[in-house]
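Letters spell out the chain; backbone shape is given numerically. Both lines appear below:
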Amino acid sequence: MTDFLSSWNDTSTKQKILNFVTSVTDENDEDYLPTLQRIAVFDNDGTLWCEKPMYIQLDFLLRKLAQQAESDASLRSKQPWKSAWEKDFAWLGNAVTMHYQGDDSDLQVLLSGILTISDGQIVDRIEIEARDFIETTTHPTLGLLYRDCTYQPMLELLQYLEANGFTNYIVSGGGRDFMRGFSNQLYSVPRERVIGSTLAYRYMVDEKGVDSIVQRAEMDVVDDGPGKPIQIWNIIGRRPILAAGNSNGDLQMLNFAGGSSLPALRLLVVHDDADREFDYQAGAEKVIESAQSNNWTSISIKRDWQRIFPV
């Protein structure tokens, strides 16, 4: 049989994945499940692709904030335009880290700015811009195009699961409209299986009679923390049996996998490879503790991955 997980080292982590998939696909095994119940959910940022020094979508949005500051000098002394203008990745990244540590003060400031650039944006156009952005923009420290900042071992895991009758979903705190622009291209996950945060929408018809769905400057769903299991249930209607994440915002999704009656594999990507990627635990303290106390499967980038990126 083809080794789908060729970029994984032959560690106990890889073996746990193989054993789990074998058990739920073998009709003679007590944990066997039909294909309808083989649901797998994956966080995106930090799980399927790189999230440091800041989220890729955040870079996309901050460039728009910087354009506003370029046109209006008065914005350059106000957050988040100040950090966007000065390319202060530390403040921006820390705002998200603080959120995962329970402090949303800076995140609310960041969101207030982002909402100003979202109002009236046509969703189809956002998808096109997202696809173009990852195809043409280079990561600030890795020297790779953003499209190549995906994790090769996780791409192989998605393929391996699909080959064994799983249905894969992306369940991310990132914007759904943004991720729909590239989910099939990068991950072979079709747009209808992307679950993410959303703004409120309105239906608009322009002077030429062309209709569109456009964003409003108002949050609708924040797909993070306890919001992830809620959205999984709303949209999929089943508990996943495999869940993969990397931060405190994934804790409830990982815990939700399997429930009390289904077999489950909970995967936590641990960023511990400063030489090839990044080494950090900030914003993941709670989920790391839970993984250890509940015997979930931790994926060490340093130990378990033979290679990290596709190129």
Observations:
- The chain has two domains: 12-49+150-304, 56-118.
